[in-house]
Amino acid sequence: MDDVTGVFKKPFNEQVAFFRNKLKKLRPTTSSADPEYQKTAHDKAFMVAGAQCADLLSDFAAAVDKAIAQGTGLGEFQKDFDKIVDRHGWAHTGDRNWRSSVIYNTNLSTSYAAGRLAQIHEAGFSHMVYKHSRTVENPRLAHVALDGTTLPIDDPFWDTHYPPNGWGCQCRVVGISRPSDARRYADEPKYTAPKLEKDPLTGLPQGVSRGWDYKPGGTVVDEVRILTAKLPKLPARIGAAMGDSMPESFAEKISERLDEFVDTHIDSDRPQNKSMVAGHISVKHLEKIEKQGIKLKSAEIVVDEDSVRHALRTKDHTPVPVSWYKRLPEHLKNADVVILDQSQRIPVLIYLFNTLPQPSKIAIKLNFREKIEELDYGVRKTKKAKRDFNRLRTAHHIGDIGSLKNQPGHKILEGEI
């Protein structure tokens, strides 16, 4: 099996982020035939076939993370592999070179594919072009036949044929904005999905190996895009219900993007009018807000670059820790008290927290109208749009939560002061 390092070269942020998100769940398996080991399970958990000990998995996870994040080669990983095997006395299948190569190349190629998929979605490309690697010494004819296949990014073809399509596969995809752009990457683009016969042994389309008929990173990318791409367009009630129905992991994924967004804009003094969806207002709070005579235009909560600087660089108040701010999508669900403040021209939703060393508040302006260039969880749009949204304005420590009790225009929606 060829070392994929020479093909995929330097790691990139989305690739590293995808892999590190998997490290939150280390999943023991008995073998590659274990149902828990199959297909999309690799999007959300780190596993090594036959590795059942938590310490063993943890060491392998650290070694693979080093290989991906630092771009070290197979030789360096094999040194780590030998140390881990000796330390744990792991009786792995296959010889040392084959086993270490499988672990290394599989994680590098799938994390690369998932990272590229995230980039393609974020850039707003409408189509993908299948590219067969010309560096492969013994190409698979079925993969060669797919070269130049150009289809919309949501075409069912990619659900089974988004590369890699087997062990050691070095095929890749390129994102494009218009179908005609495919001519830059293929001599004869194919604009219809190929009709492939099924392998009689696996039941899969020709050229797709068993266990590889899925889209690496697809479940992660699709999950976050479902909500953030639609929230700005949905009526508030529908958007709130949709947000409430998303799994717990969704807020964690948005936090990862907010982490990057904050790092990019906190020290920047050149306004770029960038923003991102950082969460939503829940149905229970939305209903109580409506009872106070306020009809929200949408349920989305937006963070923009100005609000980041206002919250974290101001001299007017004591900001919350940056690390805490970056996890706002998760904190929004766990406020101790929620207050609607109608004392100002623009109503404000206030979330109060007693969990930090000092009592803290998050303030969100409701139905705030402004022209911004939307990122919508990283999907950049070319036009600046002026519309109403709920803008997260600030997050800072306050002296005493009790000081907000019985304030004119304040209505407690949840909790007690």
Radius of gyration: 24 Å
- Report the principal-axis shape: globular
Number of domains: 3
Number of strands: 10
For the termini, the CA-CA separation is 64 Å
Structure annotation, total helices = 15
Q: Please tell me the overall pLDDT.
A: 82
What can you tell me about this protein's structure?
With 417 residues, the chain is of the alpha+beta class. The chain has 3 domains: 1-122, no CATH class; 125-216, no CATH class; 220-414, no CATH class. The chain has 15 helices and 10 strands. Strands 4, 5, 6, 7, 8, 9 and 10 form a 7-stranded mixed beta sheet that branches. Strands 2-1-3 form a 3-stranded antiparallel beta sheet. α2 (13-22) packs across α6 (96-122). The longest helix is centred in the N-terminal third of the chain and has 27 residues, at 96-122. The protein is globular and about 75 Å long. The termini are far apart. Residues 1-9 and 375-383 have low confidence and may be disordered.
In short:
With about 425 residues, this protein is of the alpha+beta class. It has helices at about 5-10, 15-20, 40-45, 55-70, 75-90, 95-120, 140-145, 155-160, 220-230, 235-245, 250-265, 285-290, 305-310, 320-325, 330, and strands at about 125-130, 150, 170-175, 275-280, 300-305, 335-340, 350-355, 360-375, 385-395, 410-415.
